[in-house]
Amino acid sequence: MTALVLRSGALLDVETGEYVDGDVLCADGRIVETGPGITAPEGARIVDLAGATVLPGLIDAHVHVTAATADLGSLPSWSPSYVTAHAARIMGQMLDRGFTTVRDASGADFGLADAQAEGLVRGPRLAFCGKALSQTGGHGDTRPRGVRVHDDHQCCAGLGRIADGVDAVRAAARDELRAGAHHIKVMAGGGVASPTDRIDSTQYSMDELRAVVEEAEAAHRYVAAHAYTARAVSRALRAGVRSIEHGNLLDESNLPEFLEHDAFLVPTLVTYWALKTEGREFGLPEDSWRKVDAVLDAGLAALERAHRAGVKVVYGTDLLGGMHRHQNEEFRIRSEVQQPLDVIRAATSTAAELLGMAGEIGTLRPGALADLVVVDGDPLADIGALADPHHIRHVVQGGKLVGGTG
To answer: InterPro entries under this entry (predicted)?
Structure first.
């Protein structure tokens, strides 16, 4: 048995919002026991926390670990091995920031997930969808107007694949599921980083959206939909989509729909702040940069509206290129309209529920995977303890110390 004891910490129960002073015993990758005065097994590694805060390992439910540039249209021309090298670096840095699990929202595939699980790549546990499904001219179609050829080979490093019509979207969804996708991503509306669509457009017919949902549900998986506007959000929810990505331009009419369909909202506020301030520095085309304002200011109001209505809100960042380093800033941005505990739940227990891993991750309960983060300071009193990564003392993944400054 390989064992680790974290001694004398302030353990945050994210479900109740209460602290308990005590120890955490991890063995064979799982949390075995929590509480004061735990007897350490023979040979266990013991780490004295001296009162530091212990939380479940953080979960970011909207990342793109292969997006090493904000110029997404250039990615398909990159060598897959070169993109993998970038992804390995990006994933390792995410782990150092306290994120022990991430959900990739297009780009990562089974190869990266397998490499992480086997210890070949240091990084968060990776839930992947493969490539996002996009209609021709949709958010996942990165071709400029004058380009007609599109290479959909699975080894190309782009984030999307084009499929038009019910039969084609069924086949595309089945192909991603065949490769082991944990969820299917569909582009249900326009976006910032795509060259030929409008942000206020809706994409895919209702029949196409329902076909993707049917295929995912048949495989006991779910669909995540990129959507900004109230109309795009409503269409996706009515089609049976489980999570709405972004949702910056949703309105009051969408809130009962989220509750009726037991759906999740995954805002990604930090990416718009980062794209506006430094996106062009990291490759964002000028046309895309000019689209940012349309969603930047509305995002925080949409989050506040959804939270107040009781919508299940999950932590996401959607950062690209050199802007990945701002991943923890999302905590600070959300704290403008949410209490710190609510933001922490979005990055732990609620995110785990979305991923279908409630009780496995996002909790300090015995029996859960031993993914934890130890921070200096009290994040319930000052969210900066999580928003500023230099406060992270230890990162534990699968019962092993894998990062931190301690």
So the answer is: Amidohydro-rel, Metal-dep_hydrolase_composite, Metal_Hydrolase, Metallo-dep_Hydrolase, OTAase-like
Check which CATH number belongs to the domain holding 293 and give it: 3.20.20.140
* 258 vs 251: CA distance, rounded Å: 11
Q: Is the pLDDT of residue 291 over 90?
A: no
174 and 254 inside one domain: yes
User: Residues 384-392: contacts with CB within 8 Å, 24+ apart?
Assistant: 384/332, 385/53, 386/55, 386/58, 386/98, 386/328, 386/331, 386/344, 387/328, 387/329, 387/331, 387/332, 387/335, 388/328, 389/96, 389/97, 389/98, 389/328, 392/96, 392/97, 392/98
For residue 53, list its beta bridge partners.
10, 375
Helix residue spans in 267-328 (DSSP H): 269-278, 286-289, 293-296, 298-309
- Global pTM reads 0.94
Q: Tell me the per-residue pLDDT of 60-72, one tens digit each, with 9 for 90 and over.
A: 999 999 999 988 8
- Which DSSP helix (H) or strand (E) runs through 134? strand 132-134
Contact call for residues 357 and 245 (beta carbons, < 8 A): no
Co-location of 185 and 232 in the same domain: yes
Question: In this structure, are 183 and 238 located in the same domain?
Answer: yes
Report the domain count for the chain. Answer: 2
- What CATH number is given to the structural domain containing 389? 2.30.40.10
- Write out the residue range of the structural domain in which residue 375 sits: 3-57+362-403
As given in the structure block, the two tokens for residue 75 are 């990615």
Distances (CA, A) of 29 to 16, 361, 397: 24, 12, 8
Question: Is residue 339 assigned to a domain?
Answer: no
| Cβ 403 vs Cβ 389: under 8 Å | no
CA–CA separation, 132 and 147 (whole Å): 20
pLDDT in tens, 344-384: 999 999 999 999 999 999 999 999 999 999 999 999 999 99
Q: Over 90: is that where the pLDDT of 152 sits?
A: no
For the annotated catalytic residues, the residue numbers are 185, 318
Task: Examine the fold and report which residue of 327, 348, 371 is the final residue of a domain before the chain moves on.
Answer: 327
Q: Round to whole Å and give the CA distance between 132 and 403.
A: 31
Backbone angles phi, psi at 205, to 5 degrees: -75, 165
